[in-house]
Amino acid sequence: MRRVPVPAALVCGTLLLVSSCGAGGTGAADDGRLPGAPTGVTATAGSATSVHVMWNAVSSGISAYEVYRNATKVKEVPGSAHMADVTRLTPSTAYVFTVRARDTDGRLGPPSRGVRATTPAVGPVDRSAPSRPGAAQGRAVGSRAVQLSWAASTDDRGVASYDIHQGATKIHSVSGAQTATVVTGLRPGTRYSFTVHARDAAGRVSSASRVVRLTTAPGTDDGRGTAPTGFRATTRRADGAYHIDLSWVPPEADGVITEYQVHLDGRPATSLVWGGTAPRDRATYSFYLGRETGMTHRVRIRARLPDGTWGGFSAERTVTTGAAARP
Fold first, then answer.
1. Of 127, 123, 49, 133, which Cα lies nearest the Cα of 85?
2. Number of other CB atoms surrounding residue 130 within 10 Å
3. Would you say 92 and 36 are in contact if contact means Cβ atoms under 8 Å apart?
């Protein structure tokens, strides 16, 4: 059977996703366009008076991010950061947060979609901090990521969130119902120390968990730990032409995966960007292949991680128009 390249123009399109050809991206372009709106924005109450906001890094050329509470700018962080803690909030109050990127020329991009977070109520006077998170452990996931987990803390008023520290620096927060996370954006062959702290609604912080020391894999690797899993590809015939149907499970990451890149026959074919709520379980996508029967193609997919870098490629699948996909 023949393997033939499919022009990128043939596989561009939009279904539930916004799709663009080539390597794509959401960052500032070289042609004078404004920076793109940050994607994957999340907001989690850290206490009765604070909210932790995270977003996916926009591509290179960003000097700063601005965080807005409703219509008011409340934070500005360097372009190398993609999270911020918004403090001095009112308990039992709903807020909407947006993020805007500013490029190195000072141009401010459009706001991200708004995300809502509600601060918890402050109960009776709380003079006790949560207990220390227990059984903290982790493992390196290739050369650029680690996975951390811990046993839940206890508190007389309930745990509102967990703060993850890299050395002495807070790098992330997750909700009090979560006891695991994945940290990306690390350097290959580097030793890191992580601790976890529990925080209650009154803002009281526990003592640190035991230190988890991990070393990322040296050099570069295949990125298997940050690759989509369960990747499937099949072809079908509709309206006199063949289409390819893809499905996969997004990789685990500290944030929301909103962008993917599909490679067809070894070349970038299309970039997919979710404009709404990105799937956290199984994702699907379909595109046009052509009208000829017996054409064989190789296909694989990778995700843009919340830190702005590309993760590893999924397993590669081979499909032939007019035949079932190979395992």
1. 49
2. 26
3. no
The answer to whether residues 112 and 39 touch, using CB atoms and an 8 Å cutoff, is yes
State the burial class of residue 295 (Cβ atoms within 10 Å of its Cβ: 0-12, 13-18, 19+). Answer: buried
Indicate the pTM of the whole model: 0.63
Measured distance CA(121)–CA(60) in Å, rounded: 40
Question: Residue holding tokens 């050809």?
Answer: 21
Torsion sign across C-alpha atoms 237, 238, 242, 243: negative
List beta partners, residue 161. Answer: 175, 199
| CA atoms of 15 and 287, how far apart (whole Å) | 9
Scan for tokens 């409340």, then name that residue. Answer: 74
% the chain with pLDDT above 70: 84
State the Cα angle at 72 between 66 and 74, rounded to 5°: 50
Q: DSSP letters along 125-190, please?
A: ----PPPPPEEEEEEE-TTS-EEEEEEPP--SS-EEEEEEEETTEEEEEEETT--EEEE--PPTT-
The closest alpha carbon to 176, from 136, 130, 210, belongs to 130
Q: Between the CA of residue 160 and those of 47, 107, 135, what are the distances in Å?
A: 6, 37, 19
- pLDDT tens, 169-186? 888 888 888 898 888 778
Task: State the average pLDDT for the chain.
Answer: 82
Distance, in Å, from the CA atom of 260 to the CA atom of 274, rounded to the nearest integer, reads 9
* Nearest in space to 151 (alpha carbons), one of 209, 207, 214, 200: 209
Q: How far is CA 324 from CA 3, 5, 155, 264, in A?
A: 16, 19, 55, 17
224 torsion bin: left (phi>0), alpha (psi -120 to 50), beta (else): alpha
Residue among 87, 251, 90 nearest 170 (CA): 87
